[in-house]
Write the structure tokens for this entry.
Amino acid sequence: MSAALDLLSLLGALVVARAKKGITQDYIASSLGVTRQAVSAWEKRINFPPADKLFAWAAIVGVRITFEPIPQSATDDCAKEAA
């Protein structure tokens, strides 16, 4: 799965978790120090939150973000493309 698809999946999980917990976009925005419109744009995938806001948003709604190592073959392919 590509990083872009993973980010879209994460955003979807954050939206679902927020709604299930009854947390408003206004509350998320206030907690993160951004506007409700910014949160709305993130949820609609119009643009993406900075990493620090993404992690804070996940903590607020109780979503754990985990990372998996990139397989060596994928990193080798990227190095070849960059050369």
